[in-house]
Automatic annotation (TrEMBL), chain A:
<feature type="transmembrane region" description="Helical">
    <location>
        <begin position="223"/>
        <end position="239"/>
    </location>
</feature>
<feature type="transmembrane region" description="Helical">
    <location>
        <begin position="83"/>
        <end position="109"/>
    </location>
</feature>
<protein>
    <submittedName>
        <fullName>Uncharacterized protein</fullName>
    </submittedName>
</protein>
<keyword id="KW-1133">Transmembrane helix</keyword>
<feature type="transmembrane region" description="Helical">
    <location>
        <begin position="181"/>
        <end position="203"/>
    </location>
</feature>
<keyword id="KW-0812">Transmembrane</keyword>
<feature type="transmembrane region" description="Helical">
    <location>
        <begin position="251"/>
        <end position="273"/>
    </location>
</feature>
<feature type="transmembrane region" description="Helical">
    <location>
        <begin position="121"/>
        <end position="146"/>
    </location>
</feature>
<dbReference type="Pfam" id="PF22564">
    <property type="entry name" value="HAAS"/>
</dbReference>
From TrEMBL, chain B:
<dbReference type="Pfam" id="PF03551">
    <property type="entry name" value="PadR"/>
</dbReference>
<feature type="domain" description="Transcription regulator PadR N-terminal">
    <location>
        <begin position="30"/>
        <end position="91"/>
    </location>
</feature>
<dbReference type="InterPro" id="IPR036390">
    <property type="entry name" value="WH_DNA-bd_sf"/>
</dbReference>
<dbReference type="InterPro" id="IPR036388">
    <property type="entry name" value="WH-like_DNA-bd_sf"/>
</dbReference>
<protein>
    <submittedName>
        <fullName>Transcriptional regulator, PadR family</fullName>
    </submittedName>
</protein>
<dbReference type="InterPro" id="IPR052509">
    <property type="entry name" value="Metal_resp_DNA-bind_regulator"/>
</dbReference>
<dbReference type="InterPro" id="IPR005149">
    <property type="entry name" value="Tscrpt_reg_PadR_N"/>
</dbReference>
């Protein structure tokens, strides 16, 4: 417990400092604490109370970290900076992937317009990328501002106690970074596809090697009304994954938040799919009209069954996935206790 | 009374902030690690919190006035600081300046006491 309290304190100081200084300052602070303990105990055994008093004398890890930072002011401080860069990278990669996918789809559908599409593609980079980076940055600037709302915290800093120091992340509860990153990329990809190119989401019909049309999966008449719901679900999904990345480990509050988000998502999906407004109601008829299948043939029956079952199984897989997300989180928190 | 104490504290803090840097530099002709410097300064009547001194030493090193080296030969690795060549030259010049300031300040402050005494 004594060592752990020191470890936590050192962690509390160094996590607020630029990465390249962490190891060195960490060693220095640890050495300082040990020197102070030596002086205090004069040869007798160190008790937990000694550690507590020494840490109190040094002050809140945040204020010690501030002294190490000097008087520099940050728009996004070292505590958030690494995370900011990570999220900005993810957002950029997802945007590039999404825009490229749209460009490729357009080229496949009408190769003749490739020059126009390419110009659109380049223009969309110039308009979209600053917007994405801008929003990410604004989000972090706000987080920094509210996190560091100096006045409230300086008061808090004066009655802190070493026993409430934040624990160092435990590897057993650790969330692997690649998991939330993959999820965020998928969410962003889904959003980009739904917003910019939902009309390409369906069965593509080629006649004599020429593209002639699409039988859409989605109900285009109702599309705009449920798009907003899907965007809300994706937005909360991204927030959830960002929290996983930020905390780097499962906690009860993270599990609770995940559970709420997933429950809301499941409810919204049930609503969408049960209302029978989500999927294209004339899907089978349009297939027949485009000569893909003939009414009454075996193929027609198979496709009809697949089409009807798709909703059910899609929903089952989705629900299981979301429940699994919460269950693994819960198990990992429990295991670490 | 507490108002007066507040003023005194604040002014003293400002005064110390400036002097602590020169004070620390002056003790580093021989290598010392952070806590031994805290103790040395304390013995000579200069109180400084380690939470202030450690970051200060690091800043002075970054500015090139100090050099540092980790000593790992003992049970506990410690970072030793020492005046750099620049640091020595700077300190020599500062010493002269300080003596001037101290002399003038003494004159000023004694005037004040004398006036008080005359009243």
């Amino acid at each position: 417990m004594k060592m752990e309290m020191i470890d936590r304190y050192v962690y509390g100081v160094t996590k607020r400092l630029p990465e390249e200084q962490r190891a060195d300052i960490g060693d220095e602070v640890r050495g300082l604490i040990e020197d102070m303990l030596d002086e205090r105990v004069q040869g007798r055994d160190v008790t937990e109370e000694d550690v507590r008093e020494v840490l109190l004398e040094l002050g809140h890890p945040r204020s010690l970290a501030r002294k190490y930072q000097g008087n520099k002011k940050y728009i996004i401080g070292p505590e958030l900076y690494d995370f900011y860069v990570l999220i900005a990278k993810i957002a950029l990669i997802s945007t590039v992937v999404g825009l490229t996918a749209i460009f490729l789809i357009k080229v496949i559908l009408s190769p003749i317009n490739i020059i126009d599409d390419f110009v659109d593609y380049i223009v969309s980079f110039i308009t979209t990328i600053p917007m994405v980076i801008g929003w990410v940055t604004i989000g972090f600037v706000l987080a920094e501002y509210f996190d560091e709302n100096k006045f409230a915290q300086i008061k808090l800093d004066n009655n802190w106690d070493p026993s409430n120091l934040t624990p160092i992340p435990d590897p057993k509860r650790q969330i692997k970074r690649c998991e939330p990153i993959t999820s965020i990329v998928i969410y962003v990809f889904v959003i980009v596809m739904l917003v910019f190119s939902n009309e390409y989401f369906g069965i593509w019909i080629f006649q004599q090697g020429e593209f002639s049309g699409i039988v859409p999966f989605l109900n285009e008449a109702e599309y705009s009304s449920f798009l907003i719901l899907i965007l809300i679900v994706c937005g909360f999904g991204i927030l959830k994954e960002c929290l996983k990345l930020f905390y780097e480990r499962w906690t009860y509050s993270l599990v609770t938040f995940t559970a709420i988000v997933n429950l809301v998502s499941i409810t919204i999906f049930f609503y969408l799919l049960n209302e029978n407004r989500f999927w294209n109601p004339d899907f089978m008829n349009e297939l027949v009209q485009n000569g893909i299948v003939t009414n009454g043939s075996d193929n027609y029956q198979v496709i009809k069954i697949i089409w009807e079952q798709m909703t059910l199984w899609g929903l089952v897989i989705l629900v299981l996935g979301l429940i699994w997300d919460v269950v693994t989180g819960f198990i990992k928190v429990r295991k670490a206790r | 009374m507490s108002k007066i104490n507040e003023h005194v504290d604040k002014l003293l803090q400002e005064l110390r902030r400036g002097t602590i840097t020169i004070g620390a530099l002056s003790q580093l002709y021989e290598p010392q690690y952070g806590y031994s410097l805290v103790t040395t300064l304390k013995e000579k009547g200069v109180q400084v919190e380690p939470g202030t001194l450690y970051p200060l030493l690091r800043r002075l090193e970054k500015q090139g006035l100090l050099e540092s080296q980790w000593d790992t030969s003992e049970a506990r690795p410690r970072k030793y600081y020492l005046l750099s060549q620049t640091g020595k030259e700077v300190l020599d010049l500062l010493r002269v300046e300080w003596q001037n300031i101290a002399r003038s300040m003494n004159v000023l402050m004694e005037e004040e006491t004398n006036e008080d005494g005359d009243d």
